[in-house]
Amino acid sequence: MRPDIHPELKPSKIVCTCGHINETVSTIGDITVEICSQCHPFYTGKQKIIDTAGRVDRFNKKFGKATQKQ
Prior knowledge:
The chain has two helices and three strands. It is of the alpha+beta class. The chain has a domain at 1-46: Rhinovirus 14, subunit 4 (Irregular), CATH 4.10.80. The chain has a three-stranded mixed sheet with strand order 2-1-3, with no helix packed on it. It starts with 9 loop residues before the first strand and ends in a 7-residue tail after the last helix.
């Protein structure tokens, strides 16, 4: 390996707008993000489905959960 070709890693903080802070190492320093794993709807379970013109309802009627056959 050639010496002195890798960037220098320094401690950095990743700060979300919700206030959550992750500490890690990075080549660019501190980072500010809009959404993180603490406030993202997919990870928090508060995911909302935006129903535009009843498309979700039409999909559920056509391809909804299959009922058990007896």
